[in-house]
From TrEMBL:
Domain L,D-TPase catalytic, residue spans: 59-167
Protein name per its UniProtKB record: L,D-transpeptidase
Active-site residues annotated for this sequence: 132, 143
Keyword terms of this UniProt record: Cell shape, Cell wall biogenesis/degradation, Peptidoglycan synthesis, Signal, Transferase
Natural source organism: Actinomycetospora flava
SUPFAM superfamilies: L,D-transpeptidase catalytic domain-like
Annotated segments matching region Disordered: 73-98
GO molecular function: transferase activity
EC number: 2.-.-.-
Pathway annotation: Cell wall biogenesis; peptidoglycan biosynthesis
Signal peptide as annotated in the record: 1-32
Domain of life, source organism: Bacteria
Length: 168
């Protein structure tokens, strides 16, 4: 499922009537201007110089547990710089696989873990695991912790139903 936050309109679907307000003078100038040769499409450089995110093109957010990074993505390309993360411990790991954003809570407090604050929570599985802001100094209980600004960015970009991919 594609996320709503990064899609741009397909310019091929713009109708000719959308060009009508340009006027005759503008059309004459455009016709007189030399046509530039189209440059071959080049792949966009990967954000942060870490190569392409290792997830499928359908992912709206990609998490690489081995590199301890996450990216917002669109059609397999990073649309954000790599975000440093902390994930679960070997005893309580962050699951790998494909998930869908379940819900978002700006001010979530964990009932399972001593009323721990989980700001900017974006829940992605039925077990209550989420992306959220928090300390990256230690492992989580399976959540993906991010710095506050990165958690805010993910929270703003993702919507319920968006695809989450987590790889190792």
């Amino acid at each position: 499922m594609a996320g709503r936050h990064r899609r741009s309109p397909d310019l091929r679907t713009v109708s000719r009537t959308a060009l009508a307000p340009l006027g005759i003078a503008t059309m004459a100038v455009a016709a007189a201007a030399p046509m530039a040769a189209a440059a071959p499409a080049q792949p966009a450089p990967a954000a942060g110089g870490l190569g392409a995110p290792p997830c499928e093109e359908t992912a709206d957010v990609c998490v690489d547990l081995s590199r301890k990074k996450a990216w917002l993505t669109d059609d397999g390309r990073a649309t954000s710089d790599p975000m440093p993360i902390t994930s679960g411990s070997p005893e309580d790991p962050t699951p790998t696989g494909t998930f869908a954003v379940q819900r978002k809570e700006r001010y979530h407090v964990s009932k399972e873990f001593d009323d721990a604050s989980m700001p900017y929570s974006v829940f992605f599985d039925e077990e209550g695991r989420a992306f959220h802001s928090g300390s990256r100094a230690s492992n989580s209980h399976g959540c993906v912790r991010l710095d506050k600004d990165d958690a805010k960015q993910l929270f703003a970009a993702l919507e319920p139903g968006d695809e989450v991919q987590i790889v190792r």
